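wait is this the right file?? whatever heres the structure
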């Protein structure tokens, strides 16, 4: 409530986005806010909404008063129309920059600088990054396969070896030198003018990604919630790929590293297997 008077929002409800009706005697004080969550237990003091879920592909969220008059609405998009691609599955959440701004505009929002956002807390600001090589991020001298810099905000530099622009522009890989431990996956959309062979400096948070139900011992180290600080040069020669047998490619040390292998195709790419060939 960015206004100067308290608001009685009893009976206000959502017509799109989620299903929820605010209980009787619900007052939002002037200058105050509260968190409305799918799982109220996740955030102390939050209100759990009734039902429904927000989609990954953009969403209209519309709240109306007891007479059906629209009080507020937000139509956020999926990596388009000015909405941040970093908040499109990259680990960041959208934060309203200023509560008094027009929250229907993409320019009024920023992607959080911390993974999972800041619900119920002040907006995030960019932390000071730890400058590291990709090798330092990937290699753990203790023998643990997880990065020694999990959850740290880092800056690193490498040559772009792959850009995923199939469907949604979603991710890219960079590598610094050849061989093991020198490549890493960047989980956000590369700038449109960035191509393979560019040397880039990036910033973001180091995480270990494991798909739901996956083996946590087979997580993938990646940088997420980040951005490209600069394109330092273009047209660079790519690192020499490591020659491996197919059964060795899945080793931790070759995450994000250019490799070459030879095998027999046992499954062709299709819409049913994410467009992947299996050898």
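ok assuming it is, sequence goes like this
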């Amino acid at each position: 409530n960015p206004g100067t008077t308290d608001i009685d929002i009893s009976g206000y409800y959502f017509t799109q986005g989620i299903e929820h009706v605010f209980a009787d005697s619900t007052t939002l004080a002037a200058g105050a806010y509260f968190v409305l969550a799918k799982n109220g237990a996740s955030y102390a003091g939050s209100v759990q909404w009734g039902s429904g879920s927000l989609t990954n592909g953009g969403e209209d969220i519309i709240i109306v008063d007891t007479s059906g008059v629209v009080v507020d609405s937000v139509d956020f998009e999926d990596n388009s129309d000015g909405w941040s691609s970093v908040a499109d599955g990259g680990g960041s959440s959208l934060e309203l920059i200023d509560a008094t701004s027009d929250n229907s505009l993409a320019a009024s929002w920023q992607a959080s600088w911390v993974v999972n956002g800041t619900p119920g807390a002040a907006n995030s600001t960019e932390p000071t990054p730890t400058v590291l090589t990709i090798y330092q991020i990937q290699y753990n001298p203790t023998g643990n396969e997880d990065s020694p810099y999990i959850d740290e905000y880092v800056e690193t530099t490498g040559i772009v070896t792959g850009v995923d622009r199939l469907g949604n522009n979603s991710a890219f890989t960079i590598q610094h030198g050849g061989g093991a431990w020198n490549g890493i996956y960047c989980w956000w959309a590369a700038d449109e003018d960035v191509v393979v062979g560019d040397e880039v400096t990036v910033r973001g948070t180091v995480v270990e990604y494991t798909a739901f139900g996956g083996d946590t011992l087979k997580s993938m180290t990646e940088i997420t919630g980040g951005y490209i600080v600069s394109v330092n040069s273009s047209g660079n020669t790519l690192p020499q790929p490591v020659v491996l047998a197919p059964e060795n490619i899945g080793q931790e040390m070759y995450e994000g590293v250019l490799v070459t292998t030879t095998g027999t195709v046992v499954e062709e790419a299709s819409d049913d297997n994410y467009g992947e060939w299996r050898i």
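The chain has one helix and 17 strands. so i think its the right one actually
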